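User: Run a structure prediction on this.
Assistant: Running it now.
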Amino acid sequence: MRVNKIAATSVVILGLLVASRPVHAQQKGQWVPGGYGLNAGVTPDPGFTYANLALNYSASQLNDSNGNRILQNVTGTLSFWVDENIFYYVPKYKFLGGYFAPFVAVNLANGSLVAALVGTNLSGNGGGEGLADTFVEPVQLGWHLKRADVSAGYAFVAPTGRFTAGASDNVGSGYWGNHITSGTTFYITKNKGTSANLFTDWEIHGKKSGTNLTPGQAFTMEWGLGQVLPLKKDFSRLLQLGLIGYDQWQVSSNGGTIPVGPIAVPAGRIPYYSVHAIGLQSNFILPAKGLTLFFKYEDEYRAKARPEGRTIVFGGTFTLRIPKPPPPKQ
């Protein structure tokens, strides 16, 4: 059985404050984990697909570069929402044996960073709302194999969100990004009801507007183990349940400097960040109608040089198939 792709792309909403010894301002990457999980390698059927995804992240714990909670001088809560509007078009013709599946994600964000760092002069980008950065994947190919669905592509992030260096109401990242993505769904059983899934994103960044800072590269994995359960004998209604998670690492040092009070600190001295989460996903699927509704909850159990919190994602996808599939045989 086929399950429509639960597609999600994400944008940076704000630079987070992290601390080691001493405390410095950290710079996150552009990919916000939590968008993928089950069906990570499945390309939508030929036609137009619209996906709406709401992502909420919240954290009240800030960790140092060793993964230990910072208790002194840190209070408050970090929270933001992203509403992603994702538009696919998949032609019915194959290219290199696969389907061409470009897409664009237009994102709206509402974020806030409420933190009191006593004795420091640090500030983060957050608290704004409106149009965020735009994720565009102009090149993506998806292959339907006998026991797997696989995709690979190139994407870029355009800094369309409002950004002014040092402002407290930024919505965007303030820099361009290049992303190399892949997705794999391996069907463990012949009827494709049980699957193992993996999505990856490698991001390379440009210089941040109004600064001489170039954020370090980052690598993200999002994974899932899922099982489809028929809610009706004719498989017209399906429930998919699974264990999911994500892992993200900074993999290269920042370039340039970051102002900390009256001095400029070499950005390369800032500790690398990482985060790891595990959680659950549920999908309600109507295959004949091309409709999927989903909900995900992921709790971060380990984080270094960044906040440690939880991610909630919910939404749906709808595919207008072109050409329309033939009616089921009676």
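The first strand starts at residue 17 and ends at 19.
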